Input
Amino acid sequence: MPGFFDFTHAIARLPGRSAVHGLRDGSGADPDFETLASEHHVYVEALQAAGIPVDLLLPEEGFPDSVFVEDAALVFGEGAILLRPGAPSRAGEAALLLPVLERHFDLVLTLEEGHADGGDILATPDAVIIGLSHRTDRTGAESLAVLLSRLGKKAVIEQTPASILHFKTGCGMIDEETVLAVPEMAGCGAFNSLRVLVTPKGEEGAANILRVGSRVLIGDHWPKTRDMIERLGIETVALPVAEIAKLDAGLSCMSLRWRARL
Ligand code: CIR
Output
């Protein structure tokens, strides 16, 4: 029987040259475009190697952060939801995804009020956790919870620690019962029914892993976290993310993934 992470489809968007001007906290250096593009390429190949066909969209130069498709929509076998990204420069990104979502889904719902970024949404087998953050407000979270109920999903609203951009910047699912989390999020109430593994000291940046099929994709400079996951008997795939990380991004944000219903 297919498992929770056995996705059958993914959507990603090639980075445009403008991606180097994407949002970031603070005034860090721009990433190098060629390296960022190669990191994206390796990422898409890793999804394909996990058996997931990727619908690869063309770059959108007018939206530097549009390579991070996860933030503008939510996708499930039951249907898709167009979100309302909380950063003003990203507000138009949801509309860009509408055509591709309409190609893949019979049902596309739209968040009509407030703000919510997909990076703040962690889907677990029991519930969809919505993290309030600098990008996701209570109005957006509550409206989203209503839309999720139309897809048969239970939503739980939680707070993201103020120092963390998105809820999933600080956590990611390792398997159906286990979440990897940074220390500040380890006690999160929404993780009560999950086993929580905490990122080793100095490897907090590793938390945004991506489970696809039987593998966990992880940034390539987090050896202790990688060992911790492999000791559970789970295969890991280490990917280069140094340039993408300069834009406060990790592995989940570069794709939308779902399992189509038969
Ligand atoms: C932003 O600040 O919106 C982008 N530079 C990074 C978005 C990362 N998205 C994610 O973790 N889901």
